[in-house]
Fold:
Amino acid sequence: MTTNEQRTSDELNMETLPDATREESSTASSAEIPKEEDLIEEKAKVMDLVGHLTELRSRLVISLLSFMVASIIGWFFARPFLLYLSQSAGRTFVFVAPGEAFFSLIKVSLTIGLVLSSPILLAETWMFVMPGLLPREIYFFRRYVPFVIALFLVGLVFAHFTVYPIALRFFLGFSTEELQARLAIGRYLSFFIAMHLPFGLMFEIPLIILALVRTGLLNVEFLVRQRKMAIIFAFIIGAILTPPDPITQSLMAVPMVLLFELSIFLARRVRPVSDEEVEILVSGGENE
Amino acid sequence: MAGFEGLANLEIWQRFAEIKRRLVWSAIVLIVMIALSYTYTPVLLNQISENLNELIFLSPGEAFFSRLKLAVVMGLILTAPYILWHIWRFVSPGLKRKQRRSSFWLIPISFALFAVGASFAFFIVAPVALRFFMSFASGDLEALISVEALLNFVIGLVVPFGFMFEMPVLMLFLAKIGLIKPEALVKNRKFAVLIIFIVAALLTPTPDAISQLAMAVPMILLYEISVIVIRIVWRKRLREAAEAD
Structure:
């Protein structure tokens, strides 16, 4: 191990990275991250401003092209997706403004395009940013970004299979003979997004809390002491981010409180980074 | 000194009285035109919703206020030449005879161009765009268009098209006062086309390429026509200048 050697931060030599880090990073980076050898090559080149701008241009072109192609593919899935939505709602949709149907389909295909091309977009962003990062920063990104993405996806899946059907059944339960539900597609898409996206973000809470505990900005006692406040905030956030009714508010707030409890549970098993570890991390990206 | 002030005051009060008289007449004619247009709104609505199976309204006041809105827009368009005539009558005593002669034609020409642009939008662009949008209706996605959304869409096409078609008048005016030369117009054609496309994207109610193209292509044609007209005007001006020498 070469950790005790004092190295300056700008000496970006990847070969001095400890073996443990390298192993972990190569497992964490399957498709998105280039191979270690490529990284070393990239680092060896010191680019001037024009070189960076040229690289930025080619990466932007690749990103935009892949987004466009993915969106065109998405256009063919937009109709089936709407069909799926209308089945989940148990009703056919209407559109009340002339352009509403067309632009809803465009919106859906762009979203599908964004999802499909997101690996390429993330990889391009990473490859552009990475050469400018310190080894320890690269180590942090590789360690935590997969968790960020995974938690976001878990949140979406959770919302889709619990919150979305419950909220839908609750709201559509108010339709009667005299009060027919005629769902306008534009508003339904907004509802669909409002029932999913906040939950993806919400599931990042444990990661954020754990990161704060690790850096020593928060400690477990504080979290336990402020539990009441956390619950109130969960309900306030739930009221703001969802339609103004107690059902969807609770559907958002209760999982948020559970996630908070999970964070406390996990935070007890995590200790803040000690001074020595900080020293090691600053000097070269050592694993603990 | 005192007499001079009194004279100035007198003239200013006369001017104010004139403005008041012209404003009152404009307002009366505007109200009459709006009322007249209101009785014709069902005809217009029928024409607009020709390609739709049904038209609904979603809030209690929507049907009435939509008709009112349509009537106000129609009334404003119909009264515009009368108001412009009043403005011209008010301003023209301050113009030289030659200026008066050349500027009088601005009113009918600008109104005619507005009418052409608005009719083009109303009779060609709006139906084509509507048919395109309606083609996305299907069994699981029914068209149930609300009258307010439909009118916003149509008015959002008609009014910008009318104003965009005024471009030749503006260019002619700028050429007459010597601000732009025909050579500059030809040289900067590339930029003109770019600007036309950007403005068309901003002014059309829906962010789709079809209505943008429907506005941009006629604008480019109008641009070319204006260039020709301005060339003629410019040549005449040069000839006159030569004769004066």
